[in-house]
């Protein structure tokens, strides 16, 4: 569901992807890290693109993140991003760093770029050396797969335990000019011996200064990728990276630009959509869970409470069982560490208010259970203390989650 | 396994319980809150006992906790503790408070005590009114059930989804006099529509000032009950309460007393044993998981890392699947927020070192899997940064956990 600006100003491009914006091409192939599935992908911009990234908060940052940081620190313009799945190149010591450099150099050489204009990213097994020969051989083949129609191949090549490709592109108007924003992501699903990794890539042909883009990305990530929880664990390889190549030829966007609001909303729409798909595709998940918290006294408080609810194993299992156990929502709120007044709280599950001013209403258990049986379950909490809100997304906790994560290496 | 002081100075009393210390009696009956199981229990001391308690950190503290706090604030001496299972009397507004008062008054009247010498505790359903008539009728019958042999009945009456009674008593020597410490607890298991509650009661006939007892309890709780994790959620009703009636007639214990060390170790032994049983009896658990972290630069750091490892869903499912996935242990360490050096870390699973100075060793997957198939799984991490250690306990995450917590009310 879109809000008003989104409805009026944002046009979704059918089958859109990260190669939809002007001047972007992408490709994805199988290079032999995984048995059969695509495992190597690339995004290329015709011209150097203003770029920005945010990284995992896990203190062990994998080698590719360090190399990408180095590229962006040199100058915040990228022309290529290469990603492999099947091996995270994490906890691989000095060797991992050399392998990530070699991967970056191979792309630079193949596409005739400066290594400092190339970013690298990896997802998969932790603690095992990257099969660098297969990757460099694969990189040599990437030019053949490159096309402005192949964004979905890239989206496929970065997946690990995800069950579907997450790809979107939208069109907005800036100064009457067409601007496209595309995105793709992979989820925080984890299967042995893979590490969790959340990767997201957002491309646009908008003209925007790297500093403005970095600030935008941080802000939007806080409302989207940082508001999803699959199982509370944060990987060593998480990264969100964005590239803006300016080929739409608008005057540079910033918060004083008359079309800033629509660009901001469009960028946020893409990020939130990717984040929701990641949550929906959490390992073993059968439902997307959306939690809205209103009436908090600060944005931090609203965010913390929304995430506590969506992240609670007890709430997640109750939702799996379609069980209207609002006591667990209360408990999660109480575990946030923030002072709230129990006698002011309203809780609504789907369309049914189960708690009003801290008192249980006379609701039908059957109707609550029905609301909890939908593909998307909405929980709405009003604390009635202030004016701040937040939304968080997650999924239910199922037998399948346990099966996937308990099973032996195969 | 006991350490040296424990082995030499602590004697475990067969079938010991909270009624083993001199002057303590206990009882447990069925009063009709639950269908068939015992649901009302009491501990009585012949004389007022120095008492201390620690409470849940959840900001919503249930009514009985507020009433118990009031009793202890009046004077830190209790003579009775009454506990019901089947209903938590939590999130019951003003009414819940009146019901808890009525429960306390009924015990005071029946046993001819001051209400301020009575503590109350409840565990079970949240958000529903206490069936106070059944409870007061049950309290009137409690004197018949009271005996110094009935500690296990009390232990049974406080259970909810626990699968076994947790009861222990030990004997130590203070000034050559026999001192007994008894304990019982119920686990943090949760089943719909019950709330999680961890309750523990420790009794002793030692003579100790309430202030010293409070300090001891806080210190020991930090090393025992606060170091267990079943699913990361904290209930509104959690409480650890201790009573020391002084009938052993030792001179008051404090840290300058020559036998302080043995008393401290004995008290800690009882608390840790109860804590480990709670972890082992976590919902759906098949294994007790012990995580020791060494070489931290502060006790806080050691504790935080041990709890992150034992609380990670990914580590817990890997242990369920007997899968030696040390990458998940690394990830949990990295999520603690503390700076550690990856190149110094050793990780040992059971007897097998899988990571040495940050590098994977040449271990046998089969042997690691064997170590992970034991009833108690031990994980040992050395950070090689400092001299601080901590131990935490938890359990595996299983299909059964999901089944229990997803199932409808019956």
From TrEMBL, chains A, B:
Keywords of the record, alphabetical order, are: Acyltransferase, Amino-acid biosynthesis, Arginine biosynthesis, Autocatalytic cleavage, Cytoplasm, Multifunctional enzyme, Transferase
One GO cellular component term: cytoplasm
Q: Where is the signal peptide?
A: none
Per the record, the major location class is cytoplasm
Specify which residues bind substrate according to the UniProt entry for this protein.
Answer: 160, 186, 197, 283, 405, 410
- What EC number(s) does this enzyme carry? 2.3.1.35, 2.3.1.1
Q: Which residues form the active site?
A: 197 (nucleophile)
The annotated subunit structure for this chain is:
Heterotetramer of two alpha and two beta chains.
Q: What is this protein called?
A: Arginine biosynthesis bifunctional protein ArgJ
């Amino acid at each position: 569901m879109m809000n008003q600006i989104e409805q009026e100003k944002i046009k979704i491009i059918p089958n859109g992807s990260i190669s939809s914006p002007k001047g972007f091409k992408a490709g994805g192939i199988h290079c032999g890290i995984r048995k059969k599935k695509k495992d190597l992908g690339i995004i290329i911009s015709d011209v150097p693109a203003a770029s920005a990234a945010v990284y995992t908060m896990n203190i062990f940052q994998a080698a590719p993140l360090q190399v990408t940081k180095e590229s962006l620190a040199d100058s915040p313009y990228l022309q290529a991003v290469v990603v492999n799945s099947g091996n995270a190149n994490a906890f691989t010591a000095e060797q991992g760093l050399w392998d990530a450099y070699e991967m970056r150099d191979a792309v630079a050489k193949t596409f005739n770029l400066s290594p400092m204009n190339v970013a690298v990213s990896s997802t998969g097994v932790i603690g095992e050396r990257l099969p660098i020969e297969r990757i460099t051989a694969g990189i040599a083949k990437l030019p053949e797969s490159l096309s402005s129609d192949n964004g979905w191949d890239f989206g496929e090549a970065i997946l690990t335990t995800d069950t579907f490709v997450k790809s979107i592109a939208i069109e907005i108007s800036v100064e009457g000019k067409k601007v496209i924003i595309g995105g793709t992501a992979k989820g925080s699903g984890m299967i042995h011996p893979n590490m969790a990794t959340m990767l997201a890539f957002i491309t646009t042909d908008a003209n925007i200064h790297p500093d403005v883009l970095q600030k935008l990305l941080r802000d939007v990530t806080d409302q989207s990728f940082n508001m999803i929880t699959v199982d509370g664990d944060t990987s060593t390889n998480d990264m969100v990276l964005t590239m803006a190549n300016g080929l739409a030829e608008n005057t540079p966007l910033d918060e004083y630009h008359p079309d800033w609001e629509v660009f901001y909303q469009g960028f946020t729409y893409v990020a939130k959509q990717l984040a929701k798909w990641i949550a929906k595709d959490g390992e073993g998940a059968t439902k997307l869970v959306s939690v809205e918290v209103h009436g908090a006294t600060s944005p931090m408080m609203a965010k913390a409470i929304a995430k506590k609810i969506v992240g609670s194993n007890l709430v997640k299992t109750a939702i799996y069982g379609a069980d209207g156990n609002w006591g667990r929502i209360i408990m999660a709120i109480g575990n946030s560490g923030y002072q709230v007044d129990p006698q002011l709280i309203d809780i609504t599950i789907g369309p049914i208010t189960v708690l009003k001013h801290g008192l249980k209403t006379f609701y039908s258990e059957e109707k609550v259970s029905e609301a909890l049986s939908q593909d998307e379950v909405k929980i709405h909490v009003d604390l009635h203390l202030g004016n701040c809100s937040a939304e968080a997304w997650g999924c239910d906790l199922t037998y399948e989650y346990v099966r996937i994560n308990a099973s032996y290496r195969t």
